[in-house]
Write a structure and sequence with these properties.
Length: 272
């Protein structure tokens, strides 16, 4: 199939149709950006690629990290799922690509000291975003998009609209978080105005703050802190999973590995 050429000679006509389809389906701008970057460096003719072509491309990715290879595999498989659905190919040429094996890693939530340092040094907008990550478990894109219209001050609830997977959820608005966000406004919770930052804009500001302070962390580790502390305090895996917006409690369970009170009891017992 013909089409205009993009970076490295890749025929992007069908790729752009796929990305447009995903955009209309509600996929996030960050996801679309990542997918486009991957496909620009994929095979020149994705629709005409054979199983052997794809396997040769995959073999050339051996020097990449496992998370990167997993992302690349997920991207091209998503493209071919779309291509099959729209009768552009008959079979998935990625079907013989094995999933990269990844060992289970424990989360590394931000520590209390680093969290306080970051919040104390942040400008008001970024400080409110950090509070939403650490005290409500919001993703950075969710924090950026949060409006005061989605906060019920009487019931002390935050309504996260169209989170990951295009799902809404409810998170409690604690007293400390309310104090960080107050006074209430009518526009964006983070900016305090009618102007809404994109998730990418907020991410860059947060990253610059961490870099300036020499704190080796990410916004996601604020969310990890929320998950870890919430599980340690409540012991309710299902409730914490709902608060985080996870598709399955199995995703949340990894945070319980660092919150298990039985570990403390074991350490006491073996030292007797």
């Amino acid at each position: 199939m013909g089409g205009r050429s993009g970076v490295a000679g890749v025929d992007v006509s069908d790729v752009e149709k796929w990305l447009d389809y995903l955009t209309r389906a509600g996929r996030s701008p960050a996801t679309i950006k990542s997918y486009r970057s991957t496909m620009r460096h994929y095979l020149p003719n994705p629709i005409g690629a054979s199983v052997e072509d794809v396997e040769s491309w995959w073999a050339a990715q051996d020097d990449k990290t496992k998370p990167t290879r997993q992302r690349l595999r997920n991207t091209v498989r998503s493209f071919y799922s779309w291509a099959i659905a729209f009768d552009l190919v008959e079979r998935d040429p990625t079907r013989r690509i094995p999933a990269p094996h990844q060992g289970r890693r424990l989360p590394r939530p931000i520590g209390r000291t680093d969290l306080r340092r970051a919040m104390d040094a942040a400008d008001p907008e970024v400080r409110r975003a950090l509070a939403l990550g650490a005290y409500a478990g919001l993703r950075i894109s969710e924090a950026a998009a949060l409006m005061w219209a989605d906060i019920d001050l009487e019931q002390r609830r935050i309504y996260v609209r169209a989170g990951k997977g295009d799902k809404d959820r409810v998170v409690a608005l604690g007293a400390l978080l309310y104090d960080e966000l107050a006074p209430a406004g009518t526009g964006s919770v983070v900016t305090g105005t009618d102007s809404v930052w994109s998730g990418d804009t907020l991410q860059r500001r947060v990253n610059r703050l961490f870099a300036r302070l020499g704190i080796e962390t990410t916004f996601h580790k604020l969310r990890a802190r929320f998950a870890t502390v919430a599980l340690a305090e409540s012991g309710n895996l299902l409730a914490v999973s709902r608060a985080l917006g996870h598709a399955s409690p199995a995703t949340t369970s990894i945070y319980a590995l660092t919150s298990d009170e039985d570990l403390d009891r074991i350490s006491v017992a073996v030292e007797r």
